[in-house]
UniProtKB/TrEMBL annotation, chain A:
Protein species of origin: Actinomadura fibrosa
Composition-biased stretches (Low complexity): 13-26
Transmembrane segments annotated in the record for this chain: none
One Gene Ontology MF term: ATP binding
Coiled coil regions in record: none
PANTHER family, per database record: ALIPHATIC SULFONATES IMPORT ATP-BINDING PROTEIN SSUB, TAURINE IMPORT ATP-BINDING PROTEIN-RELATED
Keywords, in A-Z order: ATP-binding, Cell membrane, Membrane, Nucleotide-binding, Translocase, Transport
Record's protein name: ABC transporter ATP-binding protein
Gene3D superfamilies: P-loop containing nucleotide triphosphate hydrolases (3.40.50.300)
Residues in ABC transporter domain copies: 36-250
Region of interest: Disordered: 1-26
UniProtKB/TrEMBL annotation, chain B:
SUPFAM superfamilies documented for this protein: MetI-like (SSF161098)
Organism annotation: Actinomadura fibrosa
PROSITE patterns: ABC_TM1
Name of the protein described by the UniProt record: ABC transporter permease
TM stretches of this protein: 111-134, 146-164, 170-189, 265-287
Entries under InterPro entries matching the protein: MetI-like, MetI-like_sf
Domain of life: Bacteria
Residue ranges, annotated region (Disordered): 1-37
């Protein structure tokens, strides 16, 4: 790609996609029964269709995890839902407020943590709103800090606070825990569940971690060949333990779907 | 480049900018990434850094003493290099009769005016080129071509165009200032993290918000590097311009002194140029320290 300023010139594209996607405007996302709906979504890079007529509906307040091998188009689908990809074809219906937490926290380093949380938010009392959101993620003390002085886990918490302060109808999580150490990840799983139960956005969690998907989601999807190739509902009540027999069975199924033979079979 | 004006910078353990809130028991959730904060460190660090600042003054002072000794014992002849004390008393004389202050005023005015024009042009064009492909295509090729011109080589042309008044001097300074600022600001804008630009879209900042909150602050560190280079260029351009033709200012004072074999005035003039350069450099450092506190471990 040429060195244009990323994201600047592409603004009109995103608007165009929204307009083209809003086919059923009267029962749009966030107002109807679903938080987001994708119909026959196709995304080509050159000759290769990474997404090839993918269909996906996320119910309001539903927690969906999306698994797939690397290169399967998980992130492409998430970026399309986030409005970051102007090159898709097909139906895309998302609520007015979509929030994203990326794999890297992407805090703006020259804005203090609290200012990051409310960046772009139109509110009378930004500091108050930021402090409230930071308290929810356990970062009440760090609002005045510079982002580069935060640890990895703290930064990811701030990123979650920034997403949730917007009260999104759809929360997109793009492998937000993959760069964290194992202990921090456990804490973050609990935090995300806690926040989700309190705010109830529709969630799409893109991950390559089958256990993470099973611990958190209502529904686990596997993306393969450019479409949703498999779907498992997880009815196990939360909080879940990874050794629960239901989850063990599901894990084997999902791993097989992902092309990983279960242990001991080789 | 020896910069004895650097004061608090070289403490081995640079104080982390401690946020306003009390961070007594910060959760240590990620290994390694944690930075020690709080408690009695700032006082200790200040003491240590002021001691380091003092240490930096020792070698220039020793040099000055040696120079003075060499002059007073006759090792250095007054015609080649007058003693620091001679230069000092000349300075007092010239301040007394207003010669030095007038010369400084004229030179600083030229530098300031040239800097203002050059900075406006350099930063303005960089923003124009940095923010859009169209702007880049319009501005950048021309700037790259002009950059290849040795701009002191333009002096004869400038004299033909502007005569020998203030304009060619100001123009030469402006030219020296514009290019480093343009190149660095442009590079700074283009070097802004694409991930943050994406973030701005998901936060619906809009184009103006993107420029204001992400692009310009993101380009600032690099632009400040350009600022320091351009200030050095400004003084250099001024010195050259004032050597070539001038009837006032520091350069005129120096050239005039040469005619009368007043080595002490020549040395004084050079010292004043150096001090002016150090002062502006220190000013930029101050701006950097205030504007870039967000950088981890800054000041370096």
């Amino acid at each position: 790609m040429a060195q244009g300023l990323p994201g600047v010139s592409a603004e009109p594209d995103a608007a165009g996609t929204d307009a083209a996607a809003g086919t059923d405007t009267e029962a749009g996302a966030g107002t109807g029964a679903y938080a987001a709906r994708v119909q026959g979504l196709t995304r080509r890079f050159g000759d290769r269709a990474v997404l090839d007529g993918a269909d996906l509906t996320i119910a309001r307040g539903e927690f969906v995890a999306l698994l797939g091998r690397s290169g399967s188009g998980k992130s492409t689908l998430l970026r399309a839902l986030a409005g970051l990809d102007g090159g898709t074809e097909g139906g895309l219906d998302v609520p007015a407020t979509v929030a994203v937490a990326f794999q890297e926290p992407r805090l703006v380093p020259w804005k203090r943590v609290w200012a990051n949380v409310v960046l772009g938010l139109d509110t009378a009392d930004p500091r108050g709103a930021a402090d409230k959101a930071l308290a929810e993620v356990g970062l009440a003390e760090r609002g005045g800090a510079w982002p580069l002085t935060l640890s990895g886990g703290e930064a990811q918490r701030a990123s979650l606070a920034r997403a949730l302060v917007r009260d999104p109808g759809l929360l997109l999580l793009d492998e937000p825990f993959s760069a964290l150490d194992a202990l921090t990840r456990i804490t973050m799983h609990r935090l995300v569940l806690d926040l989700w139960e309190r705010h109830r956005p529709g969630v799409l969690l893109v991950t390559h971690d089958v256990d993470e998907a099973l611990l958190l989601a209502d529904r686990v999807l596997v993306l393969d060949g450019g479409r949703i190739a498999h779907e498992s509902r997880v009815g196990t009540p939360r909080p879940r333990h990874r050794d629960h027999p239901d989850l063990t069975a599901l894990r084997a199924t999902l791993l097989a779907r992902l092309g990983v033979a279960p242990e001991g079979t080789a | 480049m020896p910069t004895p004006s650097v004061s608090t910078s070289s403490a081995p353990a640079s104080p982390v900018p401690t946020p306003s809130g009390p961070a007594s028991s910060a959760p240590a959730s990620s290994a390694g990434a944690e930075v020690p904060r709080g408690r009695a460190r700032p006082a200790l660090a200040t003491l240590r850094s002021s001691r380091a600042a003092l240490a930096r003054w020792i070698s220039p002072l020793v040099l000055l003493v040696l120079w003075q000794l060499a002059s007073s014992t006759g090792l250095l002849s007054e015609r080649q290099l007058p003693a620091p004390s001679t230069v000092g008393s000349t300075a007092l004389d010239l301040i007394g009769d207003g010669t030095l202050t007038d010369a400084i005023t004229v030179s600083v005015q030229r530098a300031a005016l040239g800097f203002a024009v050059g900075a406006l042009a350099g930063v303005g064009l960089a923003v124009l080129a940095g923010l859009s492909r169209l702007g880049e295509n319009a501005v950048d090729p021309v700037m790259q071509m002009l950059r290849a011109l040795p701009h002191f080589g333009l002096i004869p042309l400038f004299i033909l165009w502007f005569g020998i008044g203030e304009s060619p001097k100001v123009a030469l300074v402006a030219l020296g200032v514009a290019f480093p600022l343009y190149l660095n600001t442009f590079a700074g804008i283009r070097g802004v993290d694409g991930g943050l630009a994406e973030l701005a879209r998901t936060l619906r900042l809009g184009r103006a918000g993107l420029v204001r909150h992400i692009v310009l602050p993101g380009a600032l560190p690099q632009a400040l590097v350009g600022l320091r280079q351009s200030l050095a260029a400004a003084w250099l351009a001024l010195i050259v311009a004032e050597q070539v033709n001038a009837d006032s200012g520091l350069g005129y004072m120096i050239n005039n002194a040469r005619e009368f074999l007043r080595t002490d005035v020549v040395v004084l003039g050079l010292a004043v140029y150096a001090v002016l350069g150090l002062l502006t450099d220190a000013a930029v450092r101050l701006v950097e320290r205030r504007a870039l506190t967000w950088r981890k471990g800054f000041p370096v």
